[in-house]
Q: What sequence folds into this?
């Protein structure tokens, strides 16, 4: 079952924020000067998404390996 956790939500939000900043840099010259920060935000967002997927996989593995007490 596919679920979503806070790391995945954080990653999606950071990528969305970086996309908005990149779009804003088309209109504001000051934002265009710090365009590299947008790429860093995208990388951090991707890292958060990868961490969230990794956490979900490990959590599901731990849940299935525990013996039942019933």
A:
């Amino acid at each position: 079952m596919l679920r979503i956790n806070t790391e995945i939500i954080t990653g999606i939000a950071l990528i969305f924020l970086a996309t908005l900043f990149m779009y804003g840099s088309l209109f504001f010259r000051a934002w265009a000067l710090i365009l590299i920060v947008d790429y860093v935000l995208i990388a951090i967002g991707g890292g958060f998404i990868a961490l969230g997927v990794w956490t979900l996989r490990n959590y599901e593995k731990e849940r299935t390996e525990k013996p039942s007490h019933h």
User: Anything to note?
Assistant: Residues 35-65 form the longest helix (31 residues).
